[in-house]
Specification:
Elements lengths: L1 H37 L5 E3 L5 E8 L4 E6 L2 E6 L5 H8 L7
Antiparallel strand pairs: 1-2, 2-3, 3-4
């Protein structure tokens, strides 16, 4: 029984790390993957580097999207699109009271 008691704090620390760090990160990754799959032509997006544009085409072979910006057409990986910034950009304006 004494041996199990010495491992209990280590198991408790692992449980805390899992529930506060690993599980939320996995949930976030699933949301980002679903967001990337739901993108369609004409969507306005923002990349993680801050580039604003509109989706023109998809390249399934490369896993990339072609984005129209003010400077022209640019190809980006789907993973380079920022979920939070894109959703904020496309959100309806909040009503002022």
């Amino acid at each position: 029984m004494g041996d199990l008691g010495s491992f209990l704090p280590i198991l408790a620390m692992f449980a805390v790390v899992y529930f506060f760090m690993i599980a939320p990160q996995m949930k976030r990754q699933k949301k980002e993957k679903a967001f990337a799959k739901e993108l369609k032509k004409g969507d306005r997006i923002v990349t993680k580097s801050g580039m604003h544009g509109k989706i023109l085409d998809f390249s399934d072979k490369l896993g990339a999207v072609v984005i129209e910006t003010g400077a022209g057409k640019i190809t980006f990986d789907r993973s380079a699109i920022s979920m939070e910034a894109s959703q904020k950009l496309n959100a309806p304006p909040a009503e002022k009271k």
